[in-house]
Amino acid sequence: MKRRNFLLAASAVLPAATLTRVMAESGHVHHNEGDRTPGQRTDQGYMPVHTPNGWTLPYEIKDGVKEFHLVAEEIEHEFAPGSVAKCWGYNGTTPGPTIEAVEGDRVRIYVTNRLPEYTSVHWHGIHLPSGMDGVKGVTQPPIHPGETFVYEFELNQHGTHMYHPHADEMVQMAMGMMGMFIIHPKDGEIEPVDRDYAILLHNWALHPGTRRPDPSIMVDFDLWSMNSKVFPAIDSLVAKTGERVRIRMGNLSMWNHPMHVHGVSFEVTGSDGGRWPRSQWRKETTEIVGVGQVRDIEFIAPPGDWAFHCHMTHHTMNPMGHGIANPLGVDQSGIEEEIRTLLPEYMAMGQHGMADHQAHTDGGHMRGPDNTLAMAMGEGPFGTIGMGGMFTLVKVRDDLAPGDFSDPGWYWHPDGEVAWRVSDDPDFGNPVRRGKLAGAGAEDLPTPRRDGHGHHGNHGHGDHHDH
Amino acid sequence: MALPVLSVLFLAGCATTVPDLDRERLEGDLMAYGVTLSEEELPKPRGELELESAIHQALLRNPRMQAAYARLDLEAADVIEASQFANPSLSLSVLRPEGGGGNEYGIGLAWGISGWLLRSARIDIAESHWESTRLQLTEGMVALASDTERAWYEAVAARQQAQVQALETRAADLGLRLGQRFHEAGNITDLDKAHLRIRATESRLQLEEARRQERATRLYLAHLMGIPGEIEDWSVPATLPLPLADPDAPGALVDQALDGRLDLAALDKALDGMTEGVALVRRYRWLGDIEPGIEFERETDGTRLWGGGITFTLPLFNRNQSGVHRAEARLREGEARRDRLTDAIIADVHEQHYRLLHHRERFRMMREELLPAREIAMAGIQERVNYMFDDVFDLLEHKQEELRDWRRTVAELGDYWRARADLAYAVAGPLPGGPVGREGYFDIGQLEREPGQMHHHHDHGHDHEDHGEPHDHEHGDHTEHSGHGGHH
Ligand SMILES: [Cu+2]
What we know:
The complex is a heterodimer of chains A (467) and B (488). Chain A is mainly beta. Chain A has helices spanning 3-13, 17-25, 169-174, 335-342, 355-363, and strands spanning 60-62, 65-80, 83-90, 99-102, 106-113, 122-124, 148-154, 159-164, 179-184, 195-204, 223-226, 237-240, 244-251, 257-261, 266-271, 274-275, 282-284, 286-289, 294-300, 304-310, 377-380, 383-387, 391-397.
């Protein structure tokens, strides 16, 4: 059987619903994880943040001080179904729980170390007494395994902050030790938000087939995560049409991430310097969150399913090979069949691009290494989504209750609002084209005439007009 | 007077048994070594040649055997001669150089007397030599059978190695051809392609060498079978048998060897004759020189031949003191030779035994550890290629390495069987473990699949039953909304 025929046959036999069903059963595509966040303001007047796939650390008030307790420990973490690793985190998860407080609060944070090595916690971006800054060896002795230290300071600022170790940080951060620390302004906000999301961007070197992240990797990471999850396991961000949505993004990975939201021009409104004055807000659709930086973006939610992702295309992939021979445009017919006499499982891939690869991995035609993910995954209402890594969706619906963060399913587009097929003739419409075709028939490409009278009438392209 | 006596003695001599090439005794001896001689006329080999037929061919056709048969006939003639008195004319002619004339009677009488006195001893000695030679012939057959066995295994191993090498070369070749496609597509450099070509050519050179060796081993086997140059009508099996059970400890093997080695037995027989000869010389020292002799030859093709002889001269001028000395010295020399042979046998058995265990263990490690690890590695790399972590060139390169290890394993198994043949020869008898092939054969069939086989649907254990209705997710028309509700 020719491979093309096989593909057709395979796609006929293996319905697209297979993966969707698997994902739905394992609760990742259609059911958001994490604690629900109350959809109303707290007694202190702020709208609580929602950490997709994560949670917020409860506190107790003692002597007027908000007491939190972090435990640093080794955990088992699932990046997406099929990819599980021993990571390090706080209180059982990576990222650790989000700490939330209000400007003016005094916080007391116990840190218990259950790691095999010492640690410390640095409160990233927060103004505090030098001795509370958490730099092991500089401002404090190490917290040895089994020990509990306490940090106590007053919050005299607001903004989106982070916490992470400052002891063997190369290892401890590569293993997943980090969390968000949100300080709300004490005087409330002029422009209140309805949904407040907190997302930590990170990268991991979980080599395919292994079960523990490799802290030595500097460039070639496998997993690009939002709150330590990768697509398709990242919760969707949901909102009601017209709500003001804020996404707070911190970056503790080793790359910058140009984060892009579809369907809106968001405003960049703040950072770990706090919510910026209105005059400093600027409209963007993509905002780079540099390493160690924090950016808050806000927008009014328009209805629909909107992609939200890093714009570095390799960051929206799950593990993939680098530096392999490029199969694009390589006809392996004939040879592929012969290779199979020695390697029966071999299938040529990538001649027409990588898209067919996902059909094979989703369909289960190809077994991959243990404990790893295919580079592109996910199934939507129109077929495979073909993403991984730092990719999720903002799902905006007209009728969502405050505090409802559950996945509303796929968007039902109003009639006439989905692009549709008008032809399957590749020569359809005689579009204006320039340049030179690669390969056979290169000479056939018609050159547009300078008088602007093209093949099917002038469609108004500026460069067709003679001056 | 004397002539009638002579004639009486001559006639009496005719009455002694003339030994002949007694096939039954030969076959009895050979049976102990697992070698059988068929009475039937043997056609030249055709088709697939089993080990036993190869040995049979060699024993019947190899000129080495023809020479040995002839030699045995010569010895038989000696026995006859020893049992007969020399013809007077012969004795006269011997005497003539010393003769002063008129002394023929005395001389003739002396010869007659010495012949008469020595007759029974001469027969004993000649028969010892004949026995010795018969054992040598048998030993020569066993040696030839062993050589043939070794050559047969070598040919099978070479054939199997060449087969694996052909697969290895195919992998390298596919790498090159695929590289050409990648190159045509503009995706790899001239440099990359040159590297693939180097790898493919290296592999083809190795295949050429493997084929040369395959041919050389067949030619050598044909040579041993006495059909030099004729290798077209027959072939050897394509698969080596798996090792059999281990032989006993070397101590027991040494005992077996010292009991059973025919070269040692032949030497003993020759020494019996020598001992007899020395006694004879002592007893009849007045009679003249009697020189028992012993020969040892090692022919270039590895045949070992022992021999003995006895020479007489006439006691005309001395009383043969020197002859006694010489005879005794020769006997001591022969006994020393026996000690050397015994030592050599013990050393040989130990060495071949160790060699056998060594090759067996290496083969076991390769088969039970290296190749399974290779298989796991190949599956792992295939999985990595499936997920595009590695590319097909890595896969093919690893396939080549895996096949190289298969080839090494076949070579190791070939070494094992050659070592086993050597050990069986050294201990002069079959080794325990049952018939060859009892443990099965070293199958390489799984290294190659028929083209067109697709395994994806069978091997991955996916059930296809609840996939439901066909759903064309690649080419479907999704512009309608009908499907949306069903996705959660
Ligand atoms: Cu990125």
